[in-house]
Amino acid sequence: MLTVGLTGGIGAGKSVVKRFFGVLGVPTTDADARAKWLMTHDPALRAALVNEFGRAVFDAVGQLNRSWLAQRAFQDPTALARLNALVHPAVGADFAAWRRVQADAGAPYVIKEAAILFEADIARTLDCVITVAAPEEVRIRRVLARDPHRTAADVAAIIAKQLPEAERQRRADFVLWNDDLRPLLAPVLALDAELRRRAALPAATPA
Hints:
Layout: E1 2-8, H1 14-23, E2 28-30, H2 31-41, H3 43-53, H4 66-74, H5 77-104, E3 109-113, E4 128-133, H6 136-146, H7 152-161, H8 165-171, E5 174-177, H9 185-198
Parallel strand pairs: 1-3, 1-4, 2-3, 4-5
Helix pairs in contact: 2-3, 2-5, 3-5, 6-7
């Protein structure tokens, strides 16, 4: 069974592409969402976070204090490194367990979505990587529609801090353009057929 990474910059449309693959029967998981879930629900990880950052990491009802943790971690590279050292192994173990279940069920391949596949060196653990790409102005427009509390300057600043688009595409095995000008289903179907060919299984057809 192949393990395929799915990445892309903010607003590129990773989640849309992931849903297409899901319709084709491909098991998918979101590493970023799983990380958030584990930080709240995994007892060992919760204890490690409290030990490292103090009780303020969780609020009065036991929910992760995301804004507090983000402010602390992302303004301090050392704190961010400590956070990643705790969270990444937990997410990796969680993914490995999920992958075994999918392999036992006979899946041809699985997709792991993560925004920082290359930055976090996750890509080296995968068989191949798909990156979803779109022009910056399209990405900004999408994020503003999704997150009305942000400004165009906010989104542009986030994009500037992410891996450059050209570098992300250079390091990917496949690039899917999601620019709202070209239909997305056809290239996803073609890519699914190629991945199934690599896994020595027939291509799927949408229901």
